[in-house]
Amino acid sequence: MAAQYFREYETIREIRGPLLLIEKVSDVAFDEIVEVETASGDKRLGRVLEVGMGYAVVQVFEGTTGITPRGTKVRFMGKTMEIPVSEAMLGRIFDGLGRPIDGGPNIIAEERRDVNGLPINPAARAYPEDFIQTGVSAIDGMNTLVRGQKLPLFSGGGLPHNMLAAQIARQATVRGEGEEFAVVFAAIGIKYDEALFFRKFFEETGAIKRAAIFLNLADEPAMIRLITPRVALTLAEYLAFERDMHVLVILSDLTNYCEALREISSAREEVPGRQGYPGYMYSDLASIYERAGRVTGKKGTITQMPILTMPADDITHPIPDLTGYITEGQIVLDRGLYNRGIYPPINVLMSLSRLMKEGIGPGKTRDDHGDVSNQLYAAYSRAQELRNLAVIVGEESLSETDRKYLRFADAFERKFLSQGFYENRSIEETLDIGWDILSILPESELTNIKDEYIKKYHPKYKSGSSK
Amino acid sequence: MERKGRVTRISGSLVVVDDLPSPQMYEVVEVGEQRLIGEVVRIEGNRAYVQVYESTSGIRPGEPAYGTGDPLSVELGPGLVGQIFDGIQRPLTRILDVTKSVFVVRGVKLEAVPRDVKYTFKPSEKLKKGEKVGPGDVIGVVEETPLIKHQIMVPPNVRGRVVDAVGEGDYTVDDPIAFVEFEGDKKAVKMMHRWPVRRSRPFREKLEPQLPLITGMRIIDTLFPMAKGGTGAIPGAFGTGKTVTLHSLAMWSDARVVIYIGCGERGNEMTEVLEKFPTYKDPWTGRPMMERTILIANTSNMPVSAREASIYVGITIAEYYRDMGYDVLLVADSTSRWAEALREISGRLEEMPAEEGYPSYLQSRLAEFYERAGRVVVEGSPERIGSVTVVGAVSPPGGDFTEPVTTHTRRYIRVFWALDASLAYSRHYPAINWITSYSAYVDLVSSWWAENVDKEWRSLRDEIHNILLRENELKEIVRLIGAENLSEPDKLTLEVARIIREGFLKQNAYDRIDAFTSPQKQVRMMKIILRFNTIARKLVESGVTVKAIRETVDDVLTDIIKSRFTISNDDLSKFDELESRLVEKLESLAK
């Protein structure tokens, strides 16, 4: 933008929710950043949402409480929203707009970047294919995460998504490379105790040295939530594409982000889409989620793990629904499993990793990985059907093979899914557990596995003894 | 003369321009000092509403806006194949080379068809002085890729007598290759011309789509076939495999040109095509797939305003290759994002919304788009037949097929491949539901199958379909009384249906052998499964239990199921061995 000067007005005509209508302005740019100073000297940030001849509509991030039409100064800053970025931001804690709140020194900018970023040229992307071992069987074995993927956790209120995200952040490694992930964590409207959990976790594990934390807590102004994930991703892009780092971005909780989006939309009196969320929520969410990946010619990567809590555990709610259409799969947590004491309570049937196929197989994980995963899926889903059937007709009415499926499902949940918060399984361990429980079924049921792998890995042939 | 107006209001991608002299609807306007490209979407007096195709961040009221006088058009000429374009046909690979940035920076303007490349042009018989030429006449040919002989045609709006013409040689798309005179008006004909994207290209006559588009996907070719020049939709909730299915279509179909539109979808999906297609071989020609593919990418994070245009850009390019006489497949992933872009633009124009906020003209836009598909006799000589097959993904919110985009789309398509979340959850891919899907082309393509593959195709296909429909009824009963309490013939139906589901319908898009099944193998697979059905049914009638049958031939049945990835297309004699093993074992039961 050409103009770098700022202009000040005291001509607020209307205040509505988070919006200000300012009159008699000139030379205001769309999307320009605004500083609002109340009569008491309180300074807040905002941005221009619409501009016409002689007027501008400004959205105030930190709320309009205390703003008066008279006596409040509105300064147009002559630039769009930028933050300073630097490698020194790792190990530090910031507010939702990227200002340090840990008492440390101000950030000396290595560069200033527009928080909105720019779309990555699809021709510049490199397809993600490096297997990340998270040590969690349900993920590694059946919903493999790769470097540069965006894989959200779909959770519900009270489920252990934070624990799982923390466990993944602690255990994630790319095998054969000693390098750890740098973590960028954005708290978007989460509760104080959740933020504390992450903070303590980062401090206790020493991960804080490689983490930058952005905090916008539940009691802070909602409009900031629209900026916080973008601030975090702007830093992540800098670290990945300018500083060659592998960055893991955890965003929690996107549901709060979407609520803020709905609030601003209704204040602008826009035509609502489903359940009052704006029609452009898909594109808006995409402008966050698509800021992940690998690009050609750069060593660094951005792997994104957004967390969202599904309102009323409903996966068809617009927030998880639109997210699922953008992200490369989803890990779904299940209240039923959780209530039965299974951790991590991952509903594998509803979970999916779209990039799994490129990250697994010989040289990456193991040759039998794809087939074993397909077979586990097919068998577990068959078993779920039979469980439902058994409730109605009774287990005795099932055939012998069908009853074996029920035993398989129990073993799957107890041995494969279930593991400790500190249990870090290698992919070989995960697959061997998979074979172990598949051997409950008759061999003729293993129609998704090639014979060579059955001969190579099936416990019956492996140990040489008959089962 | 430069036509200039000034910006008076900016709200997102909508910019209001005042005092632009005589603006036209859908005229391209360059907005602001950076000259960002936009289109006029409404006119009120001397005020034009412009939909801008890039981020409008930083534009101020008072900045200039320039009218170009032309509607949004695409460049058509050699050099399109193998490229990736954005929603308004800017070449993304060359943008990357020029800007040296991994991001798409604003305000970049590059030509879609490269100007600096020379193509070897071979004139046709028609290109002689004094010869009369008209729209669509082939006047020469350029080998665009080893797969695509790019026919250089007289543009649709040019006719007359050739007064001058070049010989065989190397030319750029800007070099005139002929001059045509009509009523004293002399026009240069180049290898490239422009065509407005919102207007369909003319053709002579539409034909009935009678030839199947072979895809190598068993459930599609056999149960719900697509025809060349047909239209289809593939709706499904997220995670049901729309994109994988569309990729498979783009890879294995026997179309000669494939246009893949990534409309509001993931960036990595375009990257996947870009990385994979140059290395994969087209099963029909043995050449790299990229030599027949054109990509249009407006990923979900690229400006939503260009999303609406991307669909038209794609279909116009498709029609252009159709005019050369090629069978073109256009794949649009996803038409829902396009509809949402329409909704967003409509909302900013403050139009009265119809269902779920979509504009009332949603259905007419969908109709216009799908009607541009078809198998046609194209204009000009020599006489050629070309086709555009259109397949659109639909992403219904929450997987609800009663939402406006799905319901309106259903009115204009003839093949409906409904993806099913519960199949996808059990990793049954392609997760096309065989109860709710349909194809209106089964009757039309039957004669092709009978003449070219197997006379029995239609009856085999119907029998397979009927067994699956019967299974669906039986499942309801099983839910009440359990499978063990069914009659023996019904138990056999369940068993045969299981083999069809596991061994025929399921298909692994990533397995070397399974990914593409030739028509011959499809028929062979159906035959062996139905042979089992016939013999076993006789045994059951004579009192043998299904349990006994299964115990006897369990290993053969497992081998039949696995044949989808163990027996390759050129090794079909293995099915004979399998079948004789099957028959032998079953006969042992009869004694």
Spatial shape of chain A: elongated
Beta-strand portion of chain B reads 15-25%
Number of helices, where a helix is a run of at least 4 consecutive DSSP H or I residues of chain A: 14
What is the overall silhouette of chain B?
globular
Brief write-up:
The complex is a heterodimer of chains A (467) and B (591). Helix content of chain A is 32%, strand content 23%. Chain A has 467 residues and is an alpha/beta fold.
Can you characterise this structure?
The complex is a heterodimer of chains A (467) and B (591). Chain A has 467 residues and is an alpha/beta fold. Chain A folds into three domains: 7-79, Thrombin, subunit H (Beta Barrel), CATH 2.40.10.170; 83-357, Rossmann fold; 369-463, Bovine Mitochondrial F1-ATPase, ATP Synthase Beta Chain, Chain D, domain3. Chain A is built from 14 helices and 22 strands. In chain A, helix 10 (369-393) packs across helix 11 (400-417) and helix 11 (400-417) runs antiparallel to helix 12. The relative contact order of chain A is 0.12. The mean pLDDT of chain A is 91. Chain B is an alpha+beta fold. In chain B, the strands form five sheets. In chain B, strands 8, 18, 19, 20, 21, 22, 23, 24, 25 and 26 form a ten-stranded mixed β-sheet that branches. Chain B has a six-stranded antiparallel barrel with strand order 1-2-5-4-3-6. In chain B, helix 12 (488-505) runs parallel beside helix 14, helix 13 (519-541) packs parallel to helix 15 (573-590) and helix 14 (546-566) packs antiparallel against helix 15 (573-590). Chain B is globular. Chain B starts with a strand and ends with a helix. The model of chain B has no long low-confidence stretch (mean pLDDT 93). Classes of the chains: A alpha/beta (467), B alpha+beta (591). Strand 5 of chain A pairs antiparallel with strand 1 (3-11) of chain B, so a sheet runs across the interface.
